[in-house]
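User: Hi! I have a protein structure encoded as tokens and I'd like to know what sequence might fold into it. I'm fairly new to this, so please keep things simple.
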């Protein structure tokens, strides 16, 4: 109810009617895997330095339909952040600012659900630019693969079970390849693979065994 009301209010507040497509129904069974690399982990102070998005249609990851960009930041990355995203401050200074990249990114995403790993952080980082340009926050539905993984592995876990929602743990449990991380495109691609596999497991009501230590070992819910 609240989500529906907020969408109606945001649509009324939209500054540029050319972006009304964000509120339209997406193409059937499509989503977009999204990842942002940032100067740090504080959404109030840090900035995006790279973004990538890949379309998902049905059970296919459409790497030929993708968008990736390095983004200019006025906030230098710390040495620790550079070790993570491997983008030098000189590269970042020469890139386009997020406000220039954002229109193409929004057109690429459209009204599709955004799939991510701890999606709220990436969306919150993008929303700083979305609010400046459009006067709203991104209205797209969000799908967080860490939440799907929790549902598939820990839904009925007793309190004493240690919960591990790390990206590496998810990949290992699902038997998926670990590409070099903290590259926005690679992270978006791995997120898309995780999403499709977890969506299939949950649709078939198959859970990941909590004692699994290698490729996915499954059991029907309630077993």
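Assistant: Happy to help. Inverse folding works backwards from shape to sequence: for each of the 223 positions I chose a residue that suits the local structure. Here it is:
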């Amino acid at each position: 109810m609240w989500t529906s009301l907020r969408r109606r209010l945001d649509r009324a507040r939209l500054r540029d009617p050319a972006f009304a497509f964000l509120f339209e129904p997406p193409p059937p069974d499509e989503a977009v895997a999204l990842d942002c690399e940032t100067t740090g982990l504080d959404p109030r102070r840090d900035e995006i330095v790279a973004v990538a998005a890949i379309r998902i249609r049905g059970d296919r990851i459409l790497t030929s339909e993708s968008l990736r960009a390095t983004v200019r930041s006025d906030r230098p990355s710390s040495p620790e952040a550079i070790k993570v995203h491997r983008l030098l401050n000189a590269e970042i200074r020469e890139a386009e600012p997020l406000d220039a990249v954002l229109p193409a990114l929004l057109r690429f995403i459209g009204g599709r659900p955004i799939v991510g790993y701890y999606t709220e952080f990436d969306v919150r980082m993008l929303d700083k630019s979305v609010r400046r340009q459009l006067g709203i926050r991104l209205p797209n539905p969000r799908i967080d693969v860490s939440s799907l993984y929790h549902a598939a592995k820990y839904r009925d876990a007793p309190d004493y079970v240690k919960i591990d929602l790390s990206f590496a743990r998810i990949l290992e449990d699902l038997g998926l390849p670990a590409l070099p991380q903290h590259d926005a495109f690679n992270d978006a691609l791995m997120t898309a693979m995780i999403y499709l596999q977890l969506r299939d497991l949950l649709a078939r009501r198959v859970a990941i065994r909590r004692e699994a230590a290698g490729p996915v070992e499954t059991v029907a819910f309630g077993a």
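A useful reference point when you look it over: The longest helix spans residues 184-203. Feel free to ask if any position seems puzzling.
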